[in-house]
Amino acid sequence: MTQLADYRHTMESCNHCGQCKWLLGPKTRGWRFAEICPIHAQFHFDAYSGQGLINIARELLEGRLQYEPGLINLIYSCTTCGACDVNCKSVRDMEVLETILAMRAKCVEDGQGPLPAHREMAERIEKNHNIYGHDHAKRQDWLTDEIKVSAESPVAYFVGCSASYMHTDIARNTARILNACGVDFTVLGGAEYCCGNPLWQTGQREAAARQVEHNLAVMRERGIKTVITSCAECFGALRNIYPRYSEPDFEVRHIAEVARDALREGYLNFQRPVDLKVTYHDPCHLGRCSEPYVPWQGEIRAFGLHVPPKQWRRGTNGVYDAPREVLRAIPGLELREMTRNEENAYCCGAGGGVRSAFPEQARETALDRIEEAASTGAAAVVSACPFCRSNLEDALTAEAQSMKYFDLTELITRAI
Amino acid sequence: MSLPKHIYEELEAVVGARYISDRPYILAALRQPLPNIATPPQSPEAVLLPGSTAEVQAIVRICNKYKIKYIAVISSLIVFAYPSEPGTIILQLKRMNRIEEINAEDRYAVIEPGVRHGQLRTELMHLGLSYPVASVGPGGSVLSNFACASGDNHNEYGSSRTNRYICGVEWVLPSGELLRVGSLATDSGWFCADGPGPSLRGLIKGFTGQWGGMGVITRIAIGLDHWRGPAEMPTEGRSPSYKIRLPRDCHRIHIFKFPDLGKLERAMVEVGKAEIGFSVMKFFNASAALLATESANDFWDLWNSGLFQRELARPLYVYLATQSPEEMAYEEAVLMDIIGETGGEPVDASVQRIYEDNMDFYILVGFLQRVLRLGGAWAPAKLSGDSIHHMFEVARAIPEFMTEFIDKGMILNAPDNFMITPGEYGHFAHIELLFLWDRGHPDWANIGMNFMRRSQETDIGHGYHSSSPPRTGAMLQRLGPLYSNCHVWAERIKQAFDPNNVSNPMP
Description:
The structure holds 2 protein chains of 2 kinds. Chain A is α/β, with parallel strands linked by helices. Chain A contains 18 helices and 10 strands. Among the domains of chain A are: 1-113, Fumarate Reductase Iron-sulfur Protein, Chain B, domain 2, CATH 1.10.1060; 118-264, Rossmann fold, CATH 3.40.50.1860. Chain A is 43% helix and 8% strand. In chain A, strands 2-1-3-4 form a 4-stranded parallel beta sheet. In chain A, β9, α17 and β10 (404-407) form a beta-alpha-beta unit. The model of chain A has no long low-confidence stretch (mean pLDDT 96). Chain B is of the alpha+beta class. Chain B has 4 domains: 5-92, Uridine Diphospho-n-acetylenolpyruvylglucosamine Reductase, domain 2 (2-Layer Sandwich); 99-226, Uridine Diphospho-n-acetylenolpyruvylglucosamine Reductase, domain 3 (2-Layer Sandwich); 235-369, Alpha-Beta Plaits (2-Layer Sandwich), CATH 3.30.70.3450; 376-468, GMP Synthetase, Chain A, domain 3, CATH 3.30.300. Chain B has 17 helices and 20 strands. In chain B, the strands form 6 sheets. Chain B has a 5-stranded antiparallel beta sheet. Chain B has a 4-stranded mixed beta sheet with strand order 1-2-4-3, covered by helices on one side. In chain B, a hairpin with a 4-residue loop joins β5 (99-103) and β6. In chain B, α8 packs across α9 (296-305) and α14 (398-407) runs antiparallel to α15 (444-462). Classes of the chains: A alpha/beta, B alpha+beta. At the A-B interface, α1, α3, α4 and α5 of A face α2, α4 and α9 of B.
């Protein structure tokens, strides 16, 4: 199921209950921070929500709605954070996010999407294999002599574009943590291409497929059995997008999980205190959107009976505990929770191509998230996604806020 | 038809360009093809997001000037939120979302239309306060449940229907004039709906009413109750398998099954006479199975096992919420005496555990939309209120019309999927019959209306007072003569208040 028409059951089932816009009741703590959809919170019209986008998808599919620039902008204003999807699936058997993504793919197929910023990104990836258009030959320049990397190992650190070029400290810290944990690992270097997630999220599926198939071939060729990431986007892609192209023959792990297990098993010890009150921001693609994709083909019979039974991705089994367990293990560090956390975390605003196409919108969402982080009394927000980092750090800088941002790997490295 | 440019510009001048749109893709979200309605949705001509009472007034005046019909909505869950004819605009009041005041001493809260149950209920928990949350889910508007819809709820026994909780009301009349009702009319505050000053609660929300067709309520005060639980939702786990348990010393749930409706009725009456318990009801059994499961397939596994048909065909749900363990011991002892005398027995422990593990059933009912999970069509019938005894009479007559629909495979085979909720410690009761049907049935487009018509005619034939409040012109015409010609009065009131017939036209 990948085409928009495959999601007709979802489009016909919605009854405008509003669950896709609001935090789930059991997680609600008061008036503030009760909205879950970042575009609905900003633009207010129902069209800016999972429910609205489903209606739009249905009318597009049935030819009742014509393309126009405002419509394309609306479709690409969604951060594809999946909050609507998880909330809807707590009560309904619907595929809200898949419908939105399939609609974007249809826009591309129809020659109406994506937006220019996304097209330019695709061109950069095609040419230089990274989202920034930087020199591919420099993809491994982050690597320093102190870091021990094996030429051959069945464990690969998939660095990703952002840590390779933009936030190289994340790459170095991740490698240091792996060294400290005693993990024998390799890097793919120039053989590593963009994970393809930014292309997939913007509906550019053919271009995404080229990245995915290349990376899969490299990993097969190198005999990789475990892939470790420090980037939530790459993690989400490897668990959720790659299985759509090929049966996965490797395990995907985030550095937070590796560190957590090493702590439990005694391979990693935190020696140095980090005296800091922090709150943890769950990246969408490490949390609710990271559950492995399980293909389903079948029939939806009367009264919603799925034959064969379908395994639903409801955000229940995202990576939530590992980063928290690691943070709590750091001496001196105090972890505080935001209202919207774990599977109900509020998006930072950067995802789905929004930061490149609508930077102001992305910043406003980031400020909303920062306000929530500040409301916990924390002095810093910690996360595990370089894209969340860029968006939250830029918003903090622009507003001259005293709150700091840390990547999880930085705090781990400080504590080792 | 789209709005003439000059009218659009006049409206735009009120709310600003950011908060009005007539673009087809924005309006697509409001052309909601409801799963239980066969006719294609009618598009509104524009949608506006007013931010204040003054803006609402200005919009309503423009609508009167140009005879533009308008519907004021928040979450748009029910059919009346959608245009029934061309030339209608939608006012979404979601930007008017402030909790203006929580008066813990005098126990009322003043809210705007966009405040949701999830927000207000959890905000009040911090203060040890509560109110009856209508069973619509956390995203439902508090104001519209109190002022415009039926407002029945799971805790009605220990509280009441929500219209009994309305205090002061700020009301933009269909003409655009601002009216303040109750104590608010004389600048005496929000505390009372019945004066000093005019009491017009019956017009805002009577039995027939206009379902919001009498202008726009822009602020209300609602009465508050004491909350006997924790300051925050004690949530464990992750979606969709949350556990919400309340301390057992003062919060306990008991569910009993009865061999016949007569014994169940007697138990319900006796519990009310003893004035014990916070929530008492006979709940739907298919809906209970939907709430207890996490997918349609899970539901079918449970339903096909027969457990809920066996254990919950005639159940009495009792939630005891007390101030102290001693009070709990007393209420439990009285309850067990009553159950012993009336022939009830505990349901299977696995069924009871479902509720003990998720007491949100009595707080926000956050999973309520699961009852719609089967993805097809649904509708409630009955929805009326009278004595407990009368509601049970109505229930006994349900098979007279429902069996045929089941036997012909038109609706889900769930003959016991009805609820009887006593209110105010048994001084009245409410009945609701929920039926589900699948859009794959060749006659699906007619099943809903045929079922409701048969339900109504059965009630009329018996002389029962249980038919749905008339929410359509046709139903009003049929039932009005049986209720002191209330349809004539309703029409006269509508004409007096809304001479241009622009406010929320009834389908």
